[in-house]
Amino acid sequence: MKKIVAYLKDAYNELVYKVSWPTREELSGSTVIVLIASLIIAVIVFGMDSLFEWILKLLYGIL
C-alpha cells in the first residue's frame, strides 16, 4: 500500500511541478492546425476512394 501512495504522490508532484502545460494561445493554435490537417487528410482519402471505385467499376464493366 505504501508503494501505491508513494507512486501517486510522485505522479502528482511531476504533473504539478515538472510538466510544462501549454498556454491557451498555444493550445488553440495547435487545435486549428490539427483540424486543418484532419480535413486535408479526409479529402485526400475521399479522393483516393472515389478514384479506386471508378477504376474498379471501369474494370468490371459496370460503367
Descriptive account of the structure:
- The protein has 63 residues and is mainly α.
- The protein has a domain of 41 residues.
- Helices cover 86% and strands 0% of the residues.
- It is built from two helices and no strands.
- The termini are far apart.
- The mean pLDDT is 95.
Give structural attributes:
single chain, 63 residues, mainly alpha, 2 helices, elongated
User: What general form does the structure show?
Assistant: elongated
Number of strands: 0
**Number of H/I helices:** 2
The mean pLDDT is 95
Low-confidence runs: none
Q: Please summarize the sheet with the most strands.
A: none
What are the secondary-structure elements, in order, as H or E? HH
Distance between the termini: 69 Å
Radius of gyration: 24 Å
Helical proportion, percent range: over 70%
Summarize the structure.
With 63 residues, the chain is an all-alpha fold. The chain is 86% helix and 0% strand.
Helices, strands, pairings?
Blueprint: H1 2-18, H2 24-60
